[in-house]
Amino acid sequence: MTVLILAPETDEHALAVAGRLRDLGGEVTIVDLADFPQRASLSASYACCADCGGRGFALELERGRLDLGEVGAVWWRRPQWPEPSPQIADDGHRLFAANEAQEALSGMWHSLDAFWINDPARDQVAHRKAFQLSVAQDVGLRIPHTLITNDPVRARAFVDQRGYRAVIYKSFSATERDWRETRLLRPEELELLDNVKYAPVIFQEYVEAVYDLRVTVVGEELYAVAIHSQETDYKVDFRMDVARARMEAVELPAEVQRGLSALMARLGLVYGAIDMRLTPDGRHVFLEVNPAGQWLFVEEPSGQPIADAMARLLHARDRARRDVRAVAVR
Amino acid sequence: MADDDLPRTRSCGTMPVHERLLRTDSSYLHARARSETNAWEVEAAGGAVARRGITVIPTVVHVVYRTAAQNISDAQIQSQIDVLNRDFRMTNADVRSLPAVFAPLAADARIEFELARRDPSGRATSGITRTRTSAASFSDDDRVKSSRTAGVNAWPSDRYLNLWVCQLGGGLLGYAQFPGGAAATDGVVIRQSAFGTTGTAAAPFNLGRTATHEIGHWLNLRHVWGDDGTGCSGDDFVADTPNCAGSNGGIPAFPHVTCRNGPNGDLFMNYMDYTDDAGMFMFTAGQVARMQASLDADRPTIGYQKAGPKFKIADDPITLKFRDDIPKLQILDQGIPKLPAADIPRIPIRRPIPEILINPVGPVAGRAATPFVLSTPHHSQAWSRSFPGAFQQQLAQLAEQIGQYEQVLGQYQQAHAAGQLAPADVEAFGQLSAAYGQLVEEYQRLAAGG
Ligand SMILES: Nc1ncnc2c1ncn2[C@@H]1O[C@H](COP(=O)(O)OP(=O)(O)OP(=O)(O)O)[C@@H](O)[C@H]1O
Ligand SMILES: [Mg+2]
Ligand SMILES: [Zn+2]
Q1: Which of B36, B41, B43, B214 is catalytic?
Q2: Is B326 part of the contact surface with chain A (CB cutoff 8 Å)?
Q3: pLDDT tens digit string along B216-256?
Q4: Which end of chain A is more exposed for a tag (fewer CB within 10 A), N or C?
């Protein structure tokens, strides 16, 4: 059996985990989905009934053939878009080719009998911020007062109620070109609130912090790191000056750990990188979970063996599949 | 074809042509001096150029052939145009292999090329001319540029980039004429086997980089090593390219240290060095400023500026990257420069948003509105330290956006002066102006702080 990692071949996280997997004696293949359909091919073949040959899935890669029936565990690390051939001159035709490749691939992933970190379908649902807040609230985690709206009147009311100094706003996502950090609302920005009508915005009460927390969950294991964002040049969003933030491993109260485990279970996630803040009055406030979040930036300063945990989990589940199949064959 | 010995190493005839013109054409000498003065002034003024958006340059490809194989296909020509449009917009995939230490230098040249749609007399054209020649091969003596010498005449060089594609002798891959020479010979000549990526294109010059290199010359770029043999005193008049000794060929191993430029060494991944096609994949910000300055001063009438912001996501699904932590740049995800905290986007497993929803057909007024989160500026520049590469990119993107706003605002202004704006348009005009003011402020703030 083998572990499959879907990521660009240069992805540092993928390389770190692949290295550990090999140390453990496991087999591992990193596949970059951007290689489809130009440099790699796929084939999914189905016989006319289950007993007359069943089905088989395989990838033909530059370095050889990979029978997907041999894959016991998959890490959905950083799947890329299929890249259609530049020889297709028409933009519309390129889009069509990419969509077709995407359809074939994703249907194949859903068909695999393997252990997933994380199941693509779960991942897709779990990363929605509006849904995460609902689930977090349900499992008893503390979250910021939040209003998501594209109604300027309601947005203004939310701000008026707590005073602009205590309200942050942020987006769900970003494009390459346009992104913004989490920001406290400024008085001159109140005049622009009408622009909320063009796209929904996340407004939240500003959560004061002793420090930010990054909690990396790998299966049953949970690694918490304090990020001392309040000692950096930008206190509202830890990512902005992260290169200079001090970090250290910390323990979370048992109750918070239980809440996070419940959250992960409800979202169907095996792996997640969770952003939280510890408030001056000792509360742990949940902000979001990144189903594909990075961890090396906390692993280095904290010394937590996260890549190792990831490799151990993939290896164990890959082995378990092999054993199950061996029994079935006998 | 036994008569065609394919070149194994790069050689470009631009400098010999330059020296010939300096000797034989006194107006060229003066034009060169003016051009360099302007480039220097622009650099001294911090790179302020007039065209801040994207310039699209109508291009004519003159295929001059003797054998059927040399009469290269439309597909081969299109493959070359596609390469140019990636290389001059920094969307070429291989820019990701740039060593991290050089990543902050790479820049989008903001130039695109399209096969001309109208010929000089205004008739529809494919932007390709095909001429049979009796000449077995050409050299850097410009004979391919005139019908009297078995070539074909240029189209007016104030409106078109002329690309001649023919058989070149003596292992020459191509040559260009720097700005300031005669219009009749203005343009670039490329050997057919080094043109585009398909058809007769032959390794190791089959990725279309010869044209990228030569068009760099056509826009006033010098070779990175300064054209002084292997010495350390030659200059390419660009501040951000490291000083280096001679040219680099093949695909060198990083770092290649010369001229006390350690630890990072030569910038041999630059389009203006002499490596194989696969070894070159970037222009620097300084080179971009020099090319843009040259467009302003030496080629003011060429091309048109692209109007209106074009959403990347409408182009193709690969750039559809939503959701994650900051700055979400696929290029950066490849490890250059490091974005430790970035939870860079996943593929949304769904169909791309239909283009029509993103680029609605409609009046220019539709562009005035900005979503709230983007209508307000960044509140901190702390990230410019943590993510220098992303910071450079952001600056470049802002400059591009500002250029686009100026375009649209200019149109509004004209329409307003002509009394053609409805009240709703006037309101949109006001909003757009405010958004523009904010962008400029943000740009200045960023540029000052970073
Ligand atoms: N309500 C809040 N109060 C205080 N700080 C906040 C709040 N919301 C977000 N932040 C800060 O901003 C950072 C980024 O916000 P968050 O994690 O919610 O979104 P994101 O990282 O942009 O999301 P994604 O990873 O999906 O792109 C947090 O880690 C935290 O430092
Ligand atoms: Mg986050
Ligand atoms: Zn050259």
Answers
A1: B214
A2: yes
A3: 999 999 999 988 888 887 788 888 899 888 999 999 999 99
A4: C
Nearest to B329 among A81, A176, A244 (CB): A176
* Annotation says B214 is catalytic: yes
Q: Indicate the residue of A198, A232, A273 with minimum beta-carbon distance to B382.
A: A232
Q: How far is CA B209 from the centre of its chain?
A: 12
Nearest-CA residue for ligand 1 atom 4 is A207
Give the residue from A239, A274, A297 with the most B CB atoms within 10 Å of its CB, the best one to mutate: A239
Q: What residues of chain A lie within 8 A of the CB of B327, using their CB?
A: 174, 179
User: What are the C-alpha distances in Å from A80 to residues A36, A226, A242, B317, B321?
Assistant: 9, 31, 26, 10, 10
Which residues in chain A are closer than 8 Å to B347, comparing Cβ atoms? 33, 79-81, 102
A227 Cβ below 6 A of ligand 1: no
* Cβ count near A199 (within 10 Å): 15
Ligand 1 pocket check for A237: Cβ under 6 Å = yes
A330 vs A310: CA distance, rounded Å? 31
The model's pLDDT over A93-134, given as tens digits with 9 standing for 90+, comes to: 888 888 889 899 989 999 999 999 999 999 989 999 999 999
* Token couple for A293: 């979040």
For B143-184, write each residue's pLDDT tens digit. Answer: 999 999 999 999 999 999 999 999 999 899 999 999 999 999
* Residues of chain B above pLDDT 90, percent: 48
Residue of chain A minimizing CA distance to B309: A177
Nearest to B126 by CA among B216, B59, B30, B185: B59
d(CA A204, CA A133): 12
Cross-strand pairs, A275: A214, A288
What structural domains and CATH numbers belong to chain B? 3-289 (3.40.390.10), 313-447 (no CATH)
Which value, to the nearest 10 degrees, does the dihedral of the CA atoms of residues B342, B347, B349, B350 take?
110
Residue A244 and residue B386: Cβ atoms within 8 Å?
yes
Of chain B, the end-to-end C-alpha distance in Å amounts to: 56
Interatomic CA distance for residues A96 and A90, integer angstroms: 10
Q: Residues B139, B142, B144, CA angle at the centre, nearest 5°? A: 80
Distances (CA, A) of A170 to A201, B204, B216: 6, 48, 41
Q: One digit per residue, pLDDT tens: chain A, 330 residues?
A: 899 999 999 899 999 999 999 999 999 999 999 999 999 999 999 999 988 888 999 999 988 999 999 999 999 999 988 888 888 878 778 888 888 898 999 899 999 999 999 999 999 899 999 999 999 999 999 999 999 999 999 999 999 999 888 999 999 987 666 778 999 999 889 888 999 999 999 999 999 999 999 999 999 999 999 999 999 989 999 988 888 899 999 999 999 999 999 999 999 999 999 999 999 999 999 999 999 899 999 999 999 999 999 999 999 999 998 888 777 665
Q: Which amino acid, residue B169?
A: G
| pLDDT for res A188 | 85
- Ligand 1 within 6 A of CB of A232: no
Cβ of B324 closer than 6 Å to ligand 1, yes or no, is yes
Antiparallel, parallel or unpaired: β B111-115 and B128-132: unpaired
